[in-house]
Amino acid sequence: MTGIVTIFQYIISGLAQGSIYAVVAIGFNIIYNSTGIINFAQGEFVVLGAMVSITFSAIFPLWAAIAMGIAVASLYGALVEIVFVKYARAFSPLRAICLASIVFILVSASGLFSFLHPVLSILFGLAVALPFGAGGEFLLLRFQKEQNVLQLIIITIGVSILTRETMKHVWGKDVFALRYFTGTAITTISVGGVYISPQLLWVLGTVTLVVAGLYLFYKYTLVGKAMRAVSLDRKAAQLCGINARLLVTLSFILSAAIGALAGAVTSPQTSTDYKMGSSFAINGFTVAILGGLGNSFAAALAGLLLGVLESFTTAIVPSSYKEVVVIIIMLLILFFKPSGLFGKREERTLKEF
Amino acid sequence: MRRGKTDALLSVRGVSRRFGGVQALEEVSFEVRPGLIKGIIGPNGAGKSTLFNLIAGDFPPNVGEIWFNSHVITGLAPHAVAALGIARTFQTTRLFEHMTVLENVMVGRHVRSRTGFTGSILKTPGARAEERAVQARAGEILDLFGLDRYAAHSAGDLAFGIKRKVEFARAVASEPALLLLDEPAAGLNIAETRELSSLIATVKNLGITVLLVEHDMSLVMNISDEILVLNEGRKLIEGAPRDIQRNPDVISVYLGEDECSSSAT
Amino acid sequence: MAARRYIPLAIFIVLLAVVQITVSLAGANYYLTQLTMSLYYALIAVGLCLFMGYAGQVSMGHAGFFGIGAYVQAVVTTSNLLPFKDAGAVRFLDSIGFLIHGKTTLGQPVLYVSPWLALLFALLITVGIAFLIGVPVLKLKGHYLAMATLGFNVIVLTLVLGVKPFGGADGLSGVPPFALVPGVAVSGRFDARVGNYYIAAVLLILGIVVAMNLVRSRVGRALRAIHGNESAAGSLGINTSRYKLYTFVLSAVFAALGGCFLAHYNAAIGPSDIDIMKSVRFVAIVAVGGMDSIWGVVYSGIILTFISLRQVFQSYDEIFFALILIVVMLFSPRGFFRYEYVKNALGKLRARLRKERAG
Ligand SMILES: Nc1ncnc2c1ncn2[C@@H]1O[C@H](COP(=O)(O)OP(=O)(O)OP(=O)(O)O)[C@@H](O)[C@H]1O
Ligand SMILES: [Mg+2]
Fold first, then answer.
1. Highest mean pLDDT among A46-50, A205-209, A304-308, C345-349
2. DSSP A60-97
3. Total domain count for chain B?
4. Would residue B242 count as lying in a domain?
């Protein structure tokens, strides 16, 4: 009897961990579908969302921080704008504003204490990650001279490091955690002898909502349909009058947004530090290819699967080797079934990148 | 060893290939005798390029065998097929754009030279001598194709017609026994096509057997010794150009898919 | 014509000497320490340049190979065999001169494997692992290849941290000097700075010559062909997977060689030297140098590493590397330090001078 309960315990904690992988993987897929590239900075979106949520979950004397932030940010925004304008050949106020807001928030976010309601702080987190996603897209993907995969890979890696290191300077190397949404770390509810934290329900509920929401979005909204059209055939979609560029921006916003959301809801249990992004990225990427790159619903399943798998392996191997296990799974999939568990072999050869 | 001895250079036996739901080739068999030019025609999507890709080893057939010089070459990797003496051009030119024309043609000499990593790194006398020989031979090929004045040009900067010619020269540089040309005349103007036609004849005189996929009917009909017609993945007919031109099936295939050629009636 | 090829090499050698003499005359020999390390890192970058710039592949895991070289070298040469001195194998190795009787910094006697033998061993292991990894991994392209090599790096790092003999988070220290020939040793001793600078310089120059010879040969041409169009290269008889694999292995050897020498030079190696950020750094150096420009990569390797080691950007070092990576990819994907840029600029200058003289 206790054996079964233990197994359930493993499954439940695996599901929680897997949920976040699923969401990171979905983030990969959203961007992959609209641009054909893997955004290595996806993991940082998650961390950023969590960090900002945590910071804003504190109350602080607002005006001083804001004033200083605005000043520094405007200067920095102007500087970067000048550098980029020179090459982009057109002044883009939007880009300047994006840059300014990133820096404004990062600067004003440092060293702020006190407490806000967690839901409110998540909203703040989202508000930060959205323009950041948009800004990243504007700066880095638009003004490519010649797009080739190697360059794009290197650029998104650069963005990921830039983001991570900036976060290190803003928040330091400490580990933070958001407050539990309901109760505390030791609050549990018993379901048939299995004790689970209510936070787990928040996590699973959120992921379910995200997946369902995305499904409805892609299926029923005009924008969602347009995004699907672009991912199937960009040229044809453009001929039909779809503004593909705008949709690319949108896809960055969307994937940053759900990443940030996931980062925030999982933070109470998993904690957050500035350098978690790369392992999110590795796990999320593993999940994305496990499900078949581009297929978000398969990714949701694959995420939960990997989470549970990982949860069981921690029972066997030391948890410091957890990542090695995931990487080995990733390599095996890449070598033997690159189209993913649910994909057909032919599909990948058709979608060269 | 299975029996497969014929006097044919290339022998394609019952080859089929499927892509998902598309049956690109079905039970195609034919032979190519040495020293000849064999034309392959057929409407768009007939499976001509797929046939070339199968012969060249890009992917294996689902069923069937391909024999070359009494070796089975089915399932060999492209580089191994090339090493046996089959060279090809592509329907859309695939040059090494950031290399010069001379270098492109020198790469064509790859199978005819052997310096490896050690020889290259140590710059052995043998390696140097071979390098000089490769360069000299590539130069001769450029002369043959009238490309000598482009030798130092970057391949990516060339005009379309020249690119085609460079790709052709690069394939010939490997001195293959069999040369696969996939629509070499596509996109060329009349003068260029005429030049191409005489180059193909020159290549034949060098002793190279040519398999030619082409939509330009006057070119194929004039230059080919034999013609194979593919339609929807199947072999429709095979024979001398005259007979093919008169064949009612061939005419109907071309009429059926392309109204512009109705003047042929 | 052939002599012309050696002009950049001659310039480089003169520059190296000029830098050393200037620094020494200025009494600032401590600069030589970082310069020496920069030379070793440039060697690694040259190897990666062959794989990325010429074969057109991507590796986010070369710090892993660097680590394998350095750690194997360090483990082997810091293992004291004195307790086993009566074992048959130890006695045999000692009798043929493959063991060294030395003293630790504290003056205790130690018996350890000759660094030469360790080097051979480290390189063989690197070659073996590079082959094993390379065969499956190099079938991948683009993002998949980047992720797989990155995964390799993470695995190496995790193993190094987790396996006891590798010293965990502390790494290994007390790596003895490497006596190349009697009297010439790779070590970080202050009075040996100048000599060590030239040891690193000779190794780098050897690496450059190897790379240049390779690039200007049938093999180099084949690699560039693979980069340009893999299917066309295959159709011309180039065994693309074998060429990629050999180049991968060669570049891994360059990285491991750098690691082996640096382990002796710094007398230590630690996990922070082999994390993913270091791999990214190597990629940044190659990108800034211009991917397929060996000289560009040499200069960018020396300059960027030196800047970083001097801690010019302090804790913003990683940000600096990330920014430079982004900027170079956005605005000058062919790199900053290309020889042809210099050549073009000189050409323009010459043309202008000529015009002025004429008009
Ligand atoms: N790699 C591939 N993957 C999927 N389908 C393919 C592939 N190559 C060819 N096909 C399909 O196989 C069929 C035959 O194509 P193929 O290119 O051989 O025709 P073709 O005779 O060369 O036509 P064209 O005259 O237009 O060049 C087509 O329906 C094509 O879509
Ligand atoms: Mg075709």
1. A304-308
2. --HHHHHHHHHHHHHHHHHHHHHHHHHHHSS--HHHHH
3. 2
4. yes
Nearest CA in chain A to C330: A144
**Count of H helices and E strands in chain A?**
14, 2
- Provide the whole-model pTM: 0.87
Residue A181 per-residue DSSP state: S
Chain C residues with CB under 8 Å of A327 CB are: 151, 154-155
Q: Which residue has the tokens 């000499």?
A: B109
Give B220 Cα–ligand 1 centroid separation in angstroms. 20
Which residue segment(s) compose the domain that C322 sits in? 4-358
Average pLDDT in the C85-93 region?
A: 80
Measured between beta carbons, the chain B residues lying within 8 angstroms of C246 are 117
**Number of neighbours of residue B16 by Cβ within 10 angstroms:** 18
Arithmetic mean of pLDDT over chain A:
71
Q: Is residue B100 part of a domain?
A: yes
CA of B19 to the centre of ligand 1 (A): 9
Q: Which two tokens stand for residue B59?
A: 């992917």
pLDDT of residue C30: 87
Q: B196 CB near a chain C CB, below 8 Å? A: no
Q: For chain A, which residues make up each domain, given as ranges?
A: 2-86+166-348
Our count of domains for chain C comes to 1
CATH of the domain at B68: 3.40.50.300
pLDDT, average across residues A242-256? 71
- pLDDT of amino acid A256: 75
Q: What is the ipTM of this complex?
A: 0.91
State the smallest CA–CA distance between residue C273 and chain A in angstroms: 17
User: B165: distance to nearest CA of chain C, Å?
Assistant: 15
Neighbours of chain B (3+ CB pairs under 8 A): C
Gap from CA of B90 to ligand 2 centroid (Å)? 9
Three-class SS string for A300-346?
HHHHHHHHHHHHHHHHHCCHHHHHHHHHHHHHHHHHHCCCCCCCCHH
A-C contacts (CB, under 8 Å): 111
Is B42 a pocket residue for ligand 1 (Cβ < 6 Å)?
yes
Question: Among partner residues A37, A87, A334, which is closest to C144 by beta-carbon distance?
Answer: A334
**Which domain, by its residues, includes B163?**
96-174
- Residue-wise pLDDT for C256-298, tens only, equals 999 999 999 999 999 999 999 999 999 999 998 888 889 999 9
pLDDT-derived band at B108 (thresholds 50, 70, 90) equals very high
**CA of residue B40 to ligand 1 center, whole Å:** 15
Which residues from chain C sit within 8 angstroms of residue B158, using beta carbons?
Answer: none
Q: Do C231 and B94 touch (CB under 8 A)?
A: yes
A216 pLDDT above the threshold of 50: yes
The span from the CA of B55 to the CA of A71, in Å, is: 67
> DSSP H helical segments within B93-183, as ranges?
101-108, 117-122, 125-144, 160-173
Rounded to the nearest angstrom, the gap between the alpha carbon of residue A184 and the centroid of all alpha carbons in its chain is: 26
Q: Is B47 in the pocket of ligand 1 (CB under 6 A)?
A: yes
Claim to verify: residue B42 and residue B114 sit in the same structural domain: no
**CB of B24 sitting under 6 A from ligand 1:** yes
Tokens 């490519």 sit at which residue?
Answer: A144
Q: B170 and B185 share a domain?
A: no
- Mutation target for C interface from B79, B122, B158: give the one with most C CBs within 10 A: B79
A22/A129: higher pLDDT:
A22
The alpha carbon of residue C148 is apart from the nearest alpha carbon of chain A, in Å, by 6
Pick the last residue of a domain from B174, B206, B224: B174
CA distances to A270, B170, B246 from B217, in Å? 70, 25, 13
List the residue whose alpha carbon is closest to atom 12 of ligand 1: B24
Closest CA to ligand 1's atom 4: B19
Contact B185, B193 (CB under 8 A): yes
Q: Class of A2-86+166-348 per CATH?
A: mainly alpha
Same domain? B182 vs B141: no
pLDDT in tens, B69-83: 988 999 999 999 999
